[in-house]
Amino acid sequence: MLKGKSALVTGSTSGIGLAIARALAAEGANVTINGFGDKAAIENERAGIEKQFDVKAVYSPADMCKPAEIAAMIRSAEEAFGSLDVLVNNAGIQYVAPIEEFPIEKWDEMIAIGLSAAFHAIRAAVPGMKARKWGRIINTGSGHSLVASPFKVAYVSAKHGLAGLTKTVALEVATFGITANCICPGYVWTPLVEKQIPDTMKARGLTAEQVKRDVILAAQATRRFITVDEVAALAVYLCSDAAKSITGADLSIDGGWTAA
Ligand code: NAD
To answer: Topology of domain 6-188+227-253, per CATH?
Structure first.
């Protein structure tokens, strides 16, 4: 489906982003992966994508806190593959604390990675997509793009902002064959969720099992974690021709969390 096209997924050295990058490569797209982590493990993933899916894969170490690096990453992807057709803004971090104790530098970092990075990447990618009259912009939002939870002020603010950014862009590019959507997952079992358990235990005075059962899965009607492959399948669908009229949408994939 995506043969001859190129995709870039930010924050794709792990979790949801990696699953999306692999799923787009499985559809024939050349991919740029991005994110932090062990050098050898990243190279292993990159080479593995090329071998398994018979596509080209490049790695960009761009830091999503740095606008100049983001713009350069988009330019490199266009140069490497001749175009950038699918942009997935997915990088994200989490931090859990009451607002009065929330570190100011964590707020700045989370807004930079979770919201401003998508602005910078879209701003740089849209001219090429407009010129080619085709593009897919997919932002990894969250159930927290739609509803709030206590102790996650920066995350919820960034994710709500991302939903607004998505809608605005969707309206601006709608007549150019470009769609922009926000995928809003509930709890997906990835390192991001695993890492917030100790802080939630501290903030709420609970055990790890209580956090999983009474805080995380209590919100999800299905009472199970969503898988990264389920989220990746939705991203692939959004790239299809059948999805060309879906734009400016917040697409929940949250086991019923935000239905309640
Ligand atoms: P993860 O920790 O497995 O992956 C996060 C990725 O972002 C990694 O590749 C990491 O290296 C990268 N990253 C972090 N800081 C970066 C920076 N400054 N520059 C470049 N890359 C950076 O987490 P995940 O759960 O796969 O999260 C991916 C996205 O999905 C995030 O936007 C997250 O908010 C969102 N999300 C996750 C869940 C969940 O339950 N896991 C639910 C809803 C939304």
So the answer is: Rossmann fold (3.40.50)
